[in-house]
Specification:
238 residues; alpha/beta; Rossmann fold; 2 domains; three-stranded parallel sheet; 11 helices; 7 strands
Length: 238
C-alpha cells in the first residue's frame, strides 16, 4: 500500500443509512490505515444523513419514496466540499449506485463490485456464497450479477431465518439489538453453511456493527470491511 503523503485524496462518505453503521465504517477506515500520527490518516468528509428515505420501504414494502434525489444531493454536496471520491455506506443503497455516479464528476466506489472481486480472488474455487443481508438485496438481485460471471451462486437464509435477520437489522437501526436477536442471526449464518454455502458475505452495514465473533465452519467476509480497505487504497493512490 502506498505510504501516506500530503497528496492523499479525501473521501466523501454518504452515510446515515443508518448512523451507527456509518460510524462503524469510519472506524474501520481508521483501523485499516497504517499511521504513526494524525497526519497519516485519511481525511473523511461525512454526510451522516438519517433523513434519506427508507430503502426498506421503497424496495421491500413498495410504499416509500425513492431515495435517489436525496442520495444525489448528498453526493454533489460532498463533491463541492472537496471530496476526491465517494462511498455509499449502505449495501442496499447501491441499488441506486449508477444514478449517484452519473450525477457527480468524481469516482463513486462500488461496494458490491469490490466485495464480489474480493471473494473471487480469496476463494477462486467457490461455487456458492451465502449472503447475510437485507431482504431488499434478494428482491432486487443486487449481488447476483457481480457473481454470475464467475459461475458463483448467491444463496440466502430460509424465509423464516431471513425474517430473523431483518428483525436484527431493524433493531440495530433503533439501537435496540438484543442478545437473542444476535443469536438467531448466528443461527441463520450456520444454516447457510449447513446448506452448502462455501463462504459467507455480510452484506448489510447494520449487520457489520454486530458481527464480531461470528463463528461458522466457513470463511466470513464483510462488505463494509472490504470497502474500508478500498478507501485507504484509493486515498493513497498517486
Amino acid at each position: 500500500m502506498p505510504s501516506p503523503s500530503s497528496e492523499d485524496k479525501t473521501v466523501g462518505i454518504m452515510g446515515g443509512m443508518g448512523p451507527e453503521a456509518t460510524i462503524d465504517l469510519m472506524r474501520r477506515v481508521v483501523e485499516a490505515t497504517p499511521a504513526g500520527d494524525d497526519i497519516d490518516h485519511v481525511r473523511m468528509l461525512v454526510d451522516n444523513n438519517p433523513k434519506v428515505p427508507s430503502r426498506i420501504e421503497a424496495l421491500i414494502e413498495g410504499t416509500g419514496e425513492t431515495p435517489v434525489p436525496h442520495l444525489v444531493d448528498m453526493a454533489r454536496g460532498l463533491e463541492q466540499q472537496g471530496a476526491d471520491f465517494l462511498v455509499i455506506a449502505c449495501n442496499t443503497a447501491h441499488h441506486y449506485h449508477s444514478e449517484v455516479a452519473a450525477a457527480v464528476g468524481v469516482p463513486v466506489l462500488n461496494m458490491v463490485a469490490l466485495a464480489a472481486r474480493h471473494i473471487v480472488e480469496a476463494h477462486p474455487d467457490t461455487g456458492r456464497v451465502g449472503l447475510l443481508a437485507s431482504t431488499a438485496l434478494q428482491l432486487v438481485h443486487l449481488y447476483e450479477p457481480a457473481f454470475a460471471g464467475h459461475g458463483i451462486e448467491v444463496v440466502y437464509p430460509t424465509p423464516e431465518l431471513q425474517d430473523q435477520v431483518m428483525d436484527l437489522i431493524r433493531a440495530v437501526k433503533a439501537g435496540q439489538a438484543t442478545d437473542a436477536q444476535i443469536r438467531r442471526y448466528r443461527e441463520a449464518a450456520a444454516d447457510l453453511v449447513a446448506n452448502g454455502a462455501q463462504c459467507l458475505l455480510i452484506a448489510c452495514t447494520e449487520l457489520s456493527v454486530v458481527t464480531s465473533g461470528l463463528e461458522v465452519a466457513a470463511p466470513v467476509h464483510d462488505a463494509s470491511e472490504i470497502l474500508a480497505q478500498a478507501v485507504v487504497r484509493m486515498a493513497r493512490e498517486p
